[in-house]
Amino acid sequence: MVARGLGKGSVMTIVSPGSTVAASAGGIPVLAAEDSFPRWRAAVRRAVLGEIQGFLLRECPPALRRLGAQEVLRQYAIGGKCLRSTFMYLGWLCGAPDDAAALRAAASLELLHAFALLQDDVMDQSATRRAAPAAHVRFAALHRGSGAPGSSTRYGESAATLLGDMCLVWAERMLRESGCTESALRPVWPRYDAMRLELATGQFADLLNDARTEPTPASVLAIARAKSGNYTVRRPLEMGAALAGCPAPVLEALGRYGTAVGEAFQLRDDILGVLGSQSVTGKPADGDLAERTATTVLVLAREMATPSARAELAELLNRPRLGAEELDRARTLIVESGAPAEAEAMIAERVARARSALDSAIFTAPLRAALGSMATACAERVA
């Protein structure tokens, strides 16, 4: 299969195995074999970020740039791995050849992600994002440095929230004006709305997601699935496939794959929230424990620990503040409970389930290899 002639806007080409075509006019390598996927994914990310940069250059008002928004947007919209846009474009490739408009539509999800991160950092009072000061911290510092009246903290949180709102509007506008036809976008909108509502509902539930209330692993995983898993994998895949006009069997298979990979993604995030380092996550290593966030790993630890260890962990979590020594002890109790190992087993089971969803003739070998590689990337948090 070779892409339609797209002229100057050509992006990339997907070919059948055995083809000698090396790359499209856009210079992006062919998605034809498993060993070509890393270069393909890196090239897709460059193309997506190029689209986002161009869009923000056109749309970000000069007044906002003077207020420091440009740097914040670069951090939040252009600093990530482009998982969601890559998944949406892979969904598109399940039913149609390469297309510049489809790639642009997929790129719009990076602006939606920026919206989610901006508001999440305000709600969680996170000090950092991607190893740099979070948006509300940056805006507060600018306010403080300018000598403006009023609360710098309040200004920072308000400014970050408003910039997030703008990213939400820009994301939909970029999708609507991507160049995809109105008829092609029609089946996408219900899925786009579902994704946004799931994200907001998950975030709403997360406001009360405190380990001290002793929630069940199932309830914690349900919140994570709504606010992170579906939004990262399943919905973007379904949106891309719907945009390409894929039939129901393809959408159903991608839904099964996406649900499993999304859960693996969140489980890995929960492990990193306890045992990860800031160099990997871009966030404080002790954030989840310090905030008593009810992650899957922490909830599993409370269920799996010995009675004495469970009592000690509960006592630690109920202290007004956890210092470095208390955090280290809590981490030790969690590891000794076997919870991280159980979470690893849950990740492996979900990756296996995701791969089995692809065992069908409806997917080409290159697409199965690409989606398999993405499952691994999400489960292991590799670049």
Helical residue percent? 55-70%
| Average of per-residue pLDDT values | 85
Instruction: Give me the Rg, rounded.
Output: 22 Å
- Please report the total strand number as a whole number: 2
Count up the helices: 18
Shape: globular
Main sheet specs:
2 strands, antiparallel
Strand content: under 5%
Give the spatial strand order of the biggest sheet: 1-2
Low-confidence stretches: 1-26
Broad structural category:
mainly alpha
Distance between the termini: 28 Å
Q: Topology as H/E string? A: HHHHHEEHHHHHHHHHHHHH
Describe the structure.
The structure is a single chain. The protein is mainly α and 383 residues long. 69% of the residues lie in helices and 1% in strands. The chain has a two-stranded antiparallel ribbon. Helix 11 packs antiparallel against helix 17. The chain is globular and about 60 Å long. The chain starts with 36 loop residues before the first helix and ends with a helix.
Write a concise keyword list for the protein shown above.
2 strands, mainly alpha, disordered N terminus, 383 residues, single chain, globular, two-stranded antiparallel sheet
